Amino acid sequence: MTCCGTMGIAIISGVTASLETRAKHPHLIDDTSPASGTSTPSPGSTQGAPDAALPSRFIACVSRHETAKKLKRTFQELGSIGQNVEVLVSENLQAVKESDVILLCCKPQAAHAILSAPGLKEALDQKLLISILAGVTIAQLEDWVLPGTRVVRAMPNTPCRIREGMTVISTVPYEQTLDRKIISAIFSSIGRCRFLDEKHFDACTALSGSGPAFVCLVLEAMADGGVMMGLPRAEALELAAQTLQGTARMALQSGVHPAQIKDSVTTPAGCTIAGLLTLEDGRVRSTIARAIQVATQHAAALGQPSKADDARQKRLLSGYQTPHVVD
After folding, report:
1. Which end of the chain is more exposed for a tag (fewer CB within 10 A), N or C?
2. Which pLDDT score, from 0 to 100, does residue 17 have?
3. pLDDT of 253-288, one tens digit each?
4. In what order do the strands lie in the sheet with 128-131?
5. How sure is the predictor about 30, in pLDDT bands with cuts at 50, 70 and 90?
């Protein structure tokens, strides 16, 4: 498996960690339960995947020698499998020739130049190309490679670095069973994954891709409120972070609607309803929803330079304006 880029490194880290667990605890392997990728996995999340779906060799491609040195130090800390990750500098063609699965993790604007390099199109023929580029469509990618290349899009997010990510994957044809198992084994090792039609990818990019930044803004604001009311900074941040994590797990694991959780916390004439009304006065709900809308429109323009002006025009036509709260 070949990949590059910051998210590519996170993916390698997650997959190698799962393979380490598989190697250390072979008695935990359950081949009757293939990786579903629909829930946060245990440390050995690739254990249910057949051997043919598991990567056996990793190559990371970078453009600078300084980056290569940093990556080698990073991979040294990932156990015996991580220590065997190969790091190549400006040798994309050689890496692709020696790989069966290629993760394209560069900047969206650089994709065409990378895939148009001499010999790369031929090297990709009959192989699986997984793109995690925002805004670059499957149709575009297929125009840049030979018809025999199997192209799939995936959209992971930053928490993949700690194997708590959310990855959305474009649908894979039913007959490509092994490809589906390979993709599931890769991305379920770094968190949850879901297969969705590509038409949803711009919204997924905004919601789960940009989402960690939005959530961190809420997290920071909650911690600031605690500090304002006398809590030490470290404790305020811990309380806020664990509250967000615990509430999210309640919604995921129980399937209870967030509104039901909210109502269960809210008592008549209590402090919670007082705080909620303040948030509603500040249009927090609609502002966050609009942020997803605007980020979706911007995601659609990434990798599509000619559509950048259209995205800006859509934002203007939507009538969205940043709310101003008057104390």
Report:
1. C
2. 75
3. 999 999 999 999 999 999 999 999 999 999 999 999
4. 86-89, 59-62, 2-3, 101-104, 128-131, 150-155, 165-170, 191-196
5. very low
What's the CA gap between 16 and 186, in Å, rounded? Answer: 10
- 8 Å CB contact between 144 and 120: no
Residues 6 or more apart from 94 whose CB is under 8 A from it? 88
Take residue 96 and report the two structure tokens written for it: 């692709």
Q: CB–CB of 229/162 below 8 Å?
A: no
Per-residue pLDDT tens digits for 219-238: 999 999 999 999 999 999 99
Per-residue pLDDT band at 27 (split at 50, 70, 90): low
pLDDT of residue 223: 98
d(CA 280, CA 267): 17
Could you report the per-residue pLDDT of 132-149, keeping only the tens digit for each? 988 899 999 999 999 999
In angstroms, the CA 103 to CA 2 distance is: 6
On whether the CB atoms of residues 186 and 54 are closer than 8 A, the answer is: no
